[in-house]
Amino acid sequence: MTKLVLALCAALLAQPALAALPPAADLSLDAANGLAAAAIGACRTQGRAIVVAVVDRGGNLVAVQRADGVGPHNTEASRRKAYTALSTRSSTLALARNAAAEPDARNLATLPELLLLGGGVPLRAGGQVVGAIGVAGAGGAVNDHACALAAIAAIPAFEASRN
Q: Which of 58, 67, 135, 158 has the greatest number of beta carbons closer than 10 A?
């Protein structure tokens, strides 16, 4: 009997431990809508009308809002900026500047879904990227980026952008 118990214990110890997955924060619809409203509001105070898109950690579109009078191409641009920021975990303004300075980084612009144009910023909560925001139509990449940062700063659940 002792041999059987020892054999069972040895077999159990030989099994790989089940890895515990860390908890993942999810981006809610309410948070996405709050971000979109904050971005539109921040740009409106500067006399700018924008489209804002928010994607979750899987790149799924959670919210999109368009201010009156914004060109239709900006809707897709905002989505692609958000997707790019999520995918690369970097602001699209930083990516665009890096691509302009580094020949090796220019190839990023050839990937169909990526858009290396300022206005996309990853969303971080609890040290994790939980999604991204993309802004288009504010009159240039720097303006789009500033509106995205203002939206993130307006929602306490999100950490300030690193770039």
A: 135
